[in-house]
Amino acid sequence: xxxxxxxxxxxxxxxxxxxxxxxxxxxxxxxxxxxxxxxxxxxxxxxxxxxxxxxxxxxxxxxxxxxxxxxxxxxxxxxxxxxxxxxxxxxxxxxxxxxxxxxxxxxxxxxxxxxxxxxxxxxxxxxxxxxxxxxxxxxxxxxxxxxxxxxxxxxxxxxxxxxxxxxxxxxxxxxxxx
Length: 178
Description:
Mean pLDDT: 94
Largest sheet: none
């Protein structure tokens, strides 16, 4: 049996591209729908962000991660990673009541709360990108929520997309930098 540290090192070797690609796609769809109608965008946001994990499962087959591979070696940190995903899903319990009071709170609450999963991810892989992703995402979302009140369903998702692009570049190049 491998030690936790050995399992962490093994887990950290993964590319970790499928989930951020999936998030990028979902938030890009939210931004594009935000051009048309807030109420359409509300549904796109709920369905799109709720589908990130399923889209990531599909995309993982093409990134070499293959989350559902039957022959994949068991690793404690795979389980922990999926718990961070579950944590992000549970954030809807906070977002939905605020949405019912002010529907424009949705990109703020979902954007920040689902982004918290990057903090434990950063600790797991022992790389700073998750911390930077979570902090930049949170600060950007709050600023944009106040600065562009009429464009919350476009500006906030576009900022999240931009943060995902930078995150993907860094994740993809992190082994080359070591």
